[in-house]
Design brief:
This protein is an all-beta fold and 370 residues long. The chain is 0% helix and 43% strand. It has no helices and 28 strands. The protein has strands at residues 2-4, 14-16, 22-27, 34-39, 46-50, 61-64, 70-76, 79-88, 95-105, 111-114, 124-129, 133-140, 147-153, 155-161, 168-175, 178-185, 191-194, 204-209, 215-220, 227-232, 251-255, 268-271, 277-280, 288-290, 301-303, 308-313, 321-326, 348-349. It has a five-stranded antiparallel beta sheet with strand order 1-25-26-27-28, with no helix packed on it. Strands 2-3-4-5 form a four-stranded antiparallel beta sheet, with no helix packed on it. A hairpin with a 5-residue loop joins strand 16 and strand 17 (191-194). It is globular and about 55 Å long.
């Protein structure tokens, strides 16, 4: 399974590992927060608490690795510390082991956040962004503590992996008054190349990418207002802004993997402002709406290559659960509007949830006739 996190400048509250085997979140509330690891690879998901002697702060970030360890990012004044947490058996019962990885010192006004899990499952990266320069650090998977891997002019946010090797990373860079997605080649001395350039003055941000099909989900104000659009990595065709995606504050959070050379068939999951789930394919001209499961965590989810969307949830009766749903087939285009077209086919839920290549710039898109 391939997973994607929601679009944020920090890691989502519920983060899924690159291979979909594990997930992590801060559990508890008030002053009793602790890391919790979910195992998703077995027949049923289950959670393992990872508490330490001191509770975790609410702004701590978690990122699960493919080996089951959980990276934690803590801020202490102007120092950002990183460590690996893991369950360890002991005579007195299960306990939490902690491996310190070092830290990064920053100045006032610098924001540090974790990137989504790297595709190799073992490395982890953090961004330290100021108004004038952004530094990319590798904080796990390296030999001697955090290592600087790139310095990028401008203030960067976002973070999307473009390939399965963890070499190509896309960041949204704010420079000279505009935001443009750029590619950082981690295998080529941090070389930076443009990725999105719709118009010269537009803000063009990358939200999600699927390395198998090349599908890109973007947000841009090139059409005159911030709109969701889609394109294909390396394609000469312009970015498209479907009318059905003209949904204010809708946020794509997962895209279906395994659709090699078929970006139009990839399922995309969107978090809608009302708290519902939107399901869409580029080949469709319609967004299917369905209610989110009760206790849905962090706006996160993962698609299987077969087109099943899995959503993590936690409620008192089910503290660790996955709800599944399937994107229905697209309805045929209507021939007449009278009588009214039939209602959308229902989204199938199974099991039913409880109630309640190297990137190149995309060709500049002519906006006329969109």
């Amino acid at each position: 399974m391939t997973v994607c996190a929601i679009e944020m400048t920090t890691t989502a509250p519920f983060t899924i590992s690159a291979d979909g085997s594990y997930a992590a979140r801060l559990a508890g509330d008030g002053e009793a927060r602790f890391a919790e690891r979910w195992t998703l690879a077995g027949p049923e998901p289950y959670a393992v608490p990872l508490p330490l002697a001191q509770p975790e702060e609410a702004d701590s970030e978690l990122l699960p690795l493919a080996d089951g360890r959980v990276l934690i990012h803590r801020r202490v004044a102007d120092r950002h510390a990183f460590a690996l947490l893991y369950p360890t058996g002991a005579a007195a019962g299960p306990r939490t082991g902690e491996l310190q990885l070092g830290g990064v010192d920053t100045q006032e006004g610098v924001r540090v956040f974790l990137l989504p899990p790297a595709p190799d499952g073992s490395g982890a990266f953090a961004v330290a962004a100021s108004d004038t320069v952004t530094t990319l650090w590798q904080v796990a998977g390296c030999a001697f503590g955090p290592q600087r891997v790139a310095r990028i002019p401008g203030r960067c946010s976002g973070g999307v992996w473009l390939d399965r090797t963890g070499r190509l990373l896309a960041l949204d860079r704010e420079l000279e008054g505009t935001a443009k997605a750029v590619t950082v080649d981690l295998g080529g001395d941090g070389r930076i190349t443009p990725l999105l350039q719709i118009t010269e003055d537009s803000d063009d941000r990358l939200l999600l990418a699927d390395p198998d099909s090349g599908l890109l989900l973007i947000r841009s104000d090139a059409p005159g207002e911030p709109r969701l659009g889609w394109g294909v990595l390396g394609s000469s065709r312009p970015v498209r802004f479907p009318e059905c995606l003209r949904l204010r504050d809708a946020l794509p959070f997962a895209v279906q993997p395994g659709q090699a050379l078929m970006p139009e068939t990839c399922g995309v999951a969107l978090r809608l402002p009302e708290g519902d789930i939107g399901l869409w394919r580029p080949a469709d001209r319609h967004v299917f709406r369905t209610a989110a499961p009760a206790g849905w965590l962090g706006g996160a989810g993962l698609w299987s290559p077969q087109g099943r969307l899995h959503l993590p949830y936690a409620i008192p009766e089910v503290p660790c659960g996955l709800a599944g749903m399937t994107l229905p087939a697209a309805p045929p285009p209507p021939v007449r509007v009278d009588p009214p077209a039939p209602v959308d086919p229902p989204v199938r839920r199974d099991p039913p949830p409880p109630p309640s290549p190297r990137p190149v710039p995309l060709q500049q898109a002519p906006l006329a006739g969109r």
